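Exam review. A common question shows you a sequence with its structure tokens and asks you to describe the fold in words. Practice with the pair below. Do the first one on your own.
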Amino acid sequence: MANKKFLTGIIMLVCMVVLSACGSSSTQHSSDKKNNMNMDGMEMSGSNEVPKGLKTAENPTFKVGSKAVIKADHMEGMNGAKGTIVGAYDTIAYTVTYTPTTGGPEVKNHKWVIQEEIKNAGTQALKPGTKVILEADHMKGMMGAKGTIDSAEHTTVYMVDYTPVNGGAPVKNHEWVTDSELSTK
């Protein structure tokens, strides 16, 4: 009888963990009015898969496994969060303005979409004003969306795990943060 109760308790615990994980992966985020970015629908956690052709950084400022403080506010609770570097890649990072495929308002100055997440981007940096098709899936309605390049920079981009400073659920494999958005303190 005791074994049956123990087994029932374990099953209930596993179910609660699975259900809570499902709920946190679809958390919605508020708009970042300061940077004119609409982050509604942004996925808190992503997979650790990287786009095809993305090259690992040979000498990143922040090594994989190292700790860093995030100095970016792409999402609520991100600025000031302590994170762990999961991946470091050399590429071209873009801010883009696009119209979600799911409808809704235009998203302006989204940080960051990388060269390997833009359809037929080639190897040269795209100029501001260039019309593109996004192959990134950071937010609902982003995959396949038509957009415009706002800015471009050659940089190292990082995939990071962090816990939001506002007490939200831990974020795994956030794509992307740049060198200038990370600090040792």
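Now try the second one, then compare your answer with the model answer below.
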Amino acid sequence: MLSAEQLMSLEKIRLEEESKTLQKEDIAQLVDWLTLKADSIRYPAFLLLQHRSRSQDDVYPHWDAFREKLGSENSYQRSIGLMLLAANARWDAEGRLDHTIDEYLKLLGDEKPITARQCVQALAEIVPYRPDLCGKIAVALLSVNLAAVKETMRRLLLLDILNILLLIRTSYNTDEIEGYILTALSGELLNKKEKKELEARL
């Protein structure tokens, strides 16, 4: 069984490879370690679980533990919860995301801009597997109040939102999505390079 000492000694570049060797008891231990305050254990535990979730379905049974984190007072816990839920959306044959998506999307307006950004970015792992939720996700993204976000983070959050909307519009599109993208491209928040890159993807 993986020990805390072994976990802390793992190089970041080896985490993806190491995730393939995890046993069932290792996964349960890693989920427990997510609650620790010691980032030297908590962060690699999260990364191992995230890597594992992208290749195997044996982290998915801990869905409820990740969902519970969405309501945590600690922003790190909220971020961990939302990212692990997103990474496990591909294995959600039971439809648990249907009962979790509203709680998840509330974090688009999180008080911590970094958590809000992670919430948007992680949607890239949900959208391809749940096209049926694209409408609900798009409405939530279009409703994000950028003016309420710290000025230095607005541009980055807008880019995150646009990236997910471009992903959504490959299978689901509305006049509202098109209008939002065109408004962003004609506005002054994005720089010329960013606008050019986005236009090339339209």
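Model answer, second protein: The mean pLDDT is 94. The chain is about 60% helix and 0% strand. Full marks require stating both points clearly.
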